[in-house]
Write a structure and sequence with these properties.
homodimer, mainly alpha, Arc Repressor Mutant, subunit A, Tetracycline Repressor, domain 2, 2 domains, 11 helices, 66% helix, DNA-binding
Chain lengths: 236, 236
DNA sequence: TCCAAAGCAAGAGCAGCGCTCTCATTTTTG
DNA sequence: CAAAAATGAGAGCGCTGCTCTTGCTTTGGA
């Protein structure tokens, strides 16, 4: 159905892909701010106006790149998780965290695109949500496995936060304790704080051995979500 | 000396301030990417080329705004810390964290400017370092007080990280244990992860009661640096 | 099979941008 | 008081995102 509509449709997906490829190259080389539709068109041997047949605006091109970046990051994390499938939850947690960091260091501009300052006036369409959730779901899965296996330590929860914690748990993982889900959301944000600080230069002149530092911090995050010092989990 | 050089020098600082004020207004209104020298000049009733007598480039204007933003954030944090001066270290820690979050929510574009994706090709000059360090120094001071008073729990440190931890401690706070300094650096990055995720929309459809969530998370960070469950500190 | 409809590339053009250069005017300084 | 420095205005260069019109090609129904 999607590939049957003749030469024209096939050419369209090819050109679309070529535009995204060239845009990604410019993004990696110069950053999102210097991504220019005209430059992309020039490099592809087309005139700039022709490009608008494929992406109605520069922001739409960026949106496409954002979704691809989320997916690329998600794939990296999932691959790392798969490679550590035989290890314990703590090792898999750390493997995923390190995959996120590794991908970010390898694709700094794409990371900045998805986790840095949002483009002004630009709000990510709902299309990006599933791709953006992949890493979170991966971490959630690790916690689920651990919860059903060895059990999870349950970080204490202040009374004021309990309603919100139960709401989040109902939304994200009804089979996990609210304490765990809340701790995961916090750890998730904190993970990106660590990666972002390293990537955006905030660790310059502060942290030198960043690899070791990050591995340790990832382990601390794991402890925060109850992955360390496991105890028998209470009945769900 | 600095104000004595006649009307021209006085006019210069006034015009410089006016430019920065107008630029800050546009920054708050539209974000850094849409900050235009021409628009600033237009609003000030001058021609765009005249503006280059005060800021040699758009990036230099941004640098000035960055330093101001760091200082504004630092002042907010210090004020909050001062207001909580009579409270215990944990309360002061949380007060500073909440001040950071509050400032970020009140000045989202300025926060994005200093803690979001760096401007492409732009590397912050060393001028920004002291201003950028103010919040960190504040948190460090809280830990120092606690360490000298009730004492701090000392988070465990893996052997692989010990050399780096000792180096960081020697650089940042030779009077504090390496475990504490390492934990602080991590908590510092994680704090900005939490703030950034909320600010940049990553918590949309995930966290609703963000105030309560953040307060809890800040308390968890405090625990991570040893501020909770204080025990008699060992000899320094 | 033919023809209207739709898809597409190209070019010209608009308004805006950062930035540079020149020129006249004003203030400061030796 | 004259030389030097600072300042503002204007024109202009090359770039940007984006729109509109003009022809050409592919497509799908009669």
């Amino acid at each position: 159905m999607s590939t049957a509509h003749g030469a024209r449709a096939r050419a369209r997906v090819e050109v679309t892909a070529a535009i995204k490829d060239e845009a990604r190259r410019q993004l990696a080389a110069e950053g999102a701010a210097k991504l220019s539709l005209r430059a992309v068109a020039r490099e592809l041997g087309m005139v700039s106006s022709a490009l608008y047949r494929y992406f109605p605006s520069r922001d739409d091109l960026l949106t496409a790149l954002i979704i691809d970046a989320y997916d690329s990051l998600g794939e990296s994390a999932e691959a790392a998780h798969g490679a550590a499938a035989d290890s314990g939850p703590l090792q898999r947690w750390i493997a995923v965290c390190e995959a996120v960091r590794g991908w970010a260091l390898a694709h700094p501009h794409e990371y900045a695109l998805i986790y840095g300052s949002p483009v002004p006036g630009y709000t990510a369409p709902d299309t990006t949500v599933p791709a953006a959730a992949r890493v979170g779901n991966l971490l959630l899965g690790i916690l689920r496995d651990a919860y059903r296996g060895l059990g999870l330590a349950r970080p204490p929860l202040p009374a004021a936060l309990r309603p919100e914690a139960e709401r989040m748990a109902a939304d994200l993982a009804p089979d996990l304790p609210p304490e765990t889900v809340t701790a995961l959301v916090a750890a998730w944000a904190q993970l990106y704080g660590l990666v972002g600080f390293e990537l955006f230069g905030q660790f310059n002149r502060v942290v030198e051995d960043r690899e070791t530092f990050f591995r340790h911090a990832a382990g601390q995050l794991a402890q925060g979500v109850g992955l360390v010092y496991p105890q028998r989990g209470p009945a769900s």
